[in-house]
Design goal:
about 100 residues; mainly beta; 5 strands; about 10% helix; about 60% strand
Length: about 100
Amino acid sequence: MAKWYGEIGYSKTVETKPGYWEEKIYARNYYGDAMNNYYRRQSSGESINRNIKYDVTLSILADPRLIENCSNIIYAEYMGTKWQVDKIDASQYLDFF
């Protein structure tokens, strides 16, 4: 298990003018652990080269702002790159609130 520090981005719909709404992205830095790093090669029927899929699990030390917006998380920065978030397991901290 490796230590991790990076940016988490989440989106919120905000009213910019009366009647006008737009998505805004907010980002903050968090600490946590990087676990379960997996590389996988995937074959698709139409391509010659196989795709490489990379999976990593980030365990984040969350604050109330992140907990409130966990369903709106869109990316996590890992190894200097912003990665799309596919799955969030919020069951670990919901027992405490």
